[in-house]
Write a structure and sequence with these properties.
The chain is mostly helical and 514 residues long. It has 25 helices and 4 strands.
C-alpha cells in the first residue's frame, strides 16, 4: 500500500489524466460485458446489478477526478504543460528520469501491475464464480436472496403497540401498508418508532434488491408530492378540521352550531372561559362580553385574530403547543408517505411473500421436515430458471394453472412411484396411470415392433423383453395347435357309410379297398 501510494504521488498530472481515461474506458467495457452475460436466475440478476453499480460508481469517481484536473484551479497542469513544451524540455525530461531511478533504487524489485490484469481477474471471477462471488449481498434465509420480505420482527412490534389490532402474519402482510386506516389517536410515539423501523427495513431492502435505482431522487420526488398534499390537506389519514379557529386550536367547542353570541351565552361563564383559554384569548369580563369575544373568532384562523384580544404569555405558549403538535403529526405523516413509496416499489416481492407464506402454511409437518433437511435444499440458480418458473423444490407435476399440484394429490395418484419398461429402452413412467397408458402409445409399440412381436392385449403389463418373447413363443404354439389341419380334421364317408379321416381315406383308396 505504501509503494502504491508513493507511485501515485510520483505520477505527473498528465499521467494521472491518462490513467483516469484508461480506467473509465475499461470500466465502461466491463459494464457492457456484465450486461451481455446471460443471467440464470434471480440471484445472478441481483449480483450482476450490484457489480454494475460498483463499476458505475467507480467510473463516476474517475470522471470527477478528471473534471478537477481539467479545471486546473491551482494552475499546476498548465505549468506542467509549459515545462514540457518550453525551452528547457530536455532538462525536465532528465529531471523526471532521475526521479524514476531514485524511486526504483529505493524500492528494488518492485513490479508495476497494469490495470489490464485487474480487469482480467474480474472477468475470470465472473466466468468461474465461486461461493463468495455468488453471495455478494447479505440476505436473511426468509428473504430468499431478495425474492421475499422478512417482516416477522416488525409484525411482533406492531401487535405489541397499545391499542393495535392483533393480526396474524398473513393479515399483517395484506394490511401493513394501510396506515391511513389507523385512527389518529393511536398514532403515538410508540407507533412513530414502529413506522420508523419499518421504513429503515424497506429502505435497506430496496437498496439490496434494486441497486441501480436512484432512491434519493425518487424519495425527493415523493416528499415533494407529500408537501403539496399536506399543504392542501389531502394526505390520506391526516385530514384536519380547519373550519374555525376553535377547531384548529384543538378546543372542544364547535362554533358552527351557534348563530349568535346570545346562544353562546347560554353555555355559562365557566364553559366560555375554558373555550377562550384554549384559544389564548382574554377570558375575563361579563357573560355577554365573553360570548361576544368568543363568537368573533368563528370562521377565522389564529393568525387573523385581533392581537388585542390575546394574552401575550399564554397565547404565545398555546400557539407554540398547537404548532408543535402539528409538526409532530407532519413528521409521522412524512414517515408514512415514505413507507407508501417503498411498498409500491416492492409490490412484486410483497405478493411473492404472501404466496410463499400461504404455501408454507398449507404444508404438512412431514413436508416441512423434509424441506429442513440439507439434502433437499436446492440452490436458487438451479431452481429459478426464470421469473415464470414456479417454486417447486419437490419437482411436483404442474396442474392446469401452471403451478405444482398439492402434495396429497401427488401421493394419492402414486406419482412418487416410477415404473421402468425394458421394452421402451428403460424409460421410466411416473404413476400407475401413465404406466398403464403407455402400453398403447408409440414408444411401447415401436419396441414391440422391433422385437417382431405384435402389440396385442396378451402383452399387457409385460415390460421385460425375455418374458414377452417367452409369451410370444407360447402363443405361437397354441395357435399352431389350434390351426386347421386337413389331414386330421377333414372327414370322408365310404360307400358303407363309415366316417373316416382324409388320410385313412386316401390310403384305403390307393389300396383299392374302397
Amino acid at each position: 500500500l505504501v509503494v502504491a501510494r508513493i507511485s501515485i504521488i510520483m505520477e505527473t498530472l498528465l499521467e494521472q489524466q491518462r490513467r483516469h481515461h484508461e480506467e473509465r474506458e475499461r470500466l465502461e467495457d466491463a459494464v457492457v460485458q456484465e450486461k451481455l452475460v446471460k443471467k440464470a436466475g434471480h440471484r445472478d440478476q441481483i449480483n450482476s446489478e450490484h457489480r454494475i453499480k460498483e463499476l458505475t460508481e467507480r467510473s463516476m469517481a474517475c470522471t470527477h477526478s478528471l473534471a478537477k484536473l481539467y479545471e486546473d484551479e491551482d494552475g499546476l497542469r498548465k505549468e506542467e504543460i509549459q515545462s514540457l513544451s518550453g525551452p528547457n524540455e530536455l532538462a525536465e525530461f532528465y529531471e523526471r528520469l532521475r526521479h524514476l531511478k531514485d524511486f526504483h533504487r529505493r524500492y528494488p524489485g518492485e513490479i508495476h501491475e497494469s490495470m489490464q490484469l485487474e480487469f482480467m481477474r474480474l472477468a475470470q471471477a465472473r466466468e468461474n464464480s465461486g461461493e463468495e462471488f455468488q453471495n455478494l449481498v447479505n440476505f436473511s434465509d426468509e428473504e430468499g436472496y431478495g425474492k421475499y420480505l422478512d417482516l416477522h420482527a416488525l409484525h411482533r412490534e406492531f401487535i405489541n403497540i397499545k391499542g393495535m389490532e392483533k393480526l396474524d402474519y398473513m393479515a399483517y402482510l395484506a394490511r401493513f401498508d394501510q396506515l391511513y386506516e389507523i385512527p389518529r389517536e393511536k398514532k403515538t410515539s410508540e407507533y412513530k418508532r414502529y413506522v420508523g423501523n419499518l421504513l429503515v427495513y424497506l429502505h435497506e431492502y430496496a437498496l439490496k434488491v434494486k441497486p441501480m435505482m436512484d432512491l434519493d431522487k425518487e424519495l425527493t420526488r415523493a416528499m415533494k408530492e407529500f408537501e403539496d398534499k399536506w399543504a392542501k390537506d389531502m394526505f390520506p389519514g391526516w385530514k384536519r378540521d380547519t373550519g374555525s379557529a376553535m377547531a384548529r386550536a384543538g378546543a372542544h367547542l364547535d362554533l358552527s352550531a351557534f348563530s349568535s353570541a346570545e346562544e353562546l351565552a347560554s353555555l355559562g361563564l365557566n364553559r366560555l372561559k375554558s373555550a377562550l383559554q384554549a384559544l389564548g384569548i382574554k377570558c375575563g369580563g361579563t357573560l355577554q362580553e365573553r360570548a361576544q369575544r368568543l363568537f368573533s373568532t368563528k370562521g377565522k384562523d389564529l393568525n387573523s385574530l385581533d392581537p388585542t384580544l390575546s394574552i401575550k404569555a399564554k397565547g404565545g405558549k398555546g400557539h407554540r403547543m398547537a404548532m408543535s403538535e402539528d409538526e409532530k403529526n407532519k413528521e409521522i405523516a412524512a414517515l408514512e408517505c415514505q413507507v407508501y413509496f417503498f411498498v409500491e416499489m416492492l409490490g412484486e416481492q410483497r405478493q411473492a411473500t404472501r404466496e410463499n407464506v400461504e404455501r408454507k402454511q398449507a404444508r404438512t409437518a412431514d413436508e416441512l421436515e423434509e424441506d429442513e433437511e440439507p439434502d433437499e435444499v436446492v440452490s436458487d440458480s438451479d431452481s429459478d430458471e426464470g421469473e415464470t418458473v414456479p417454486y417447486n423444490p419437490k419437482n411436483l407435476p404442474l396442474g392446469w394453472d401452471g403451478k405444482p399440484i398439492p402434495y396429497w394429490l401427488y401421493k394419492l395418484h402414486g406419482l412418487n412411484i416410477y415404473y421402468e419398461c425394458e421394452i421402451c429402452g428403460g424409460y421410466k413412467y411416473r404413476g400407475p396411470k401413465a404406466f398403464q397408458r403407455h402400453f398403447s402409445e408409440w414408444r411401447h409399440a415401436h419396441g414391440m415392433r422391433c422385437l417382431g412381436i405384435p402389440n396385442t392385449a396378451h402383452f399387457a403389463n409385460v415390460t421385460s423383453i425375455s418374458e414377452s418373447q417367452q409369451l410370444w413363443s407360447a402363443l405361437k404354439n397354441n395357435k399352431e395347435k389350434e390351426r386347421w389341419q386337413a389331414e386330421r380334421e377333414e372327414e370322408f364317408e365310404d360307400s358303407l357309410g363309415n366316417v373316416i379321416t382324409k388320410k385313412i381315406y386316401d390310403d384305403l383308396r390307393r389300396q383299392g379297398l374302397l
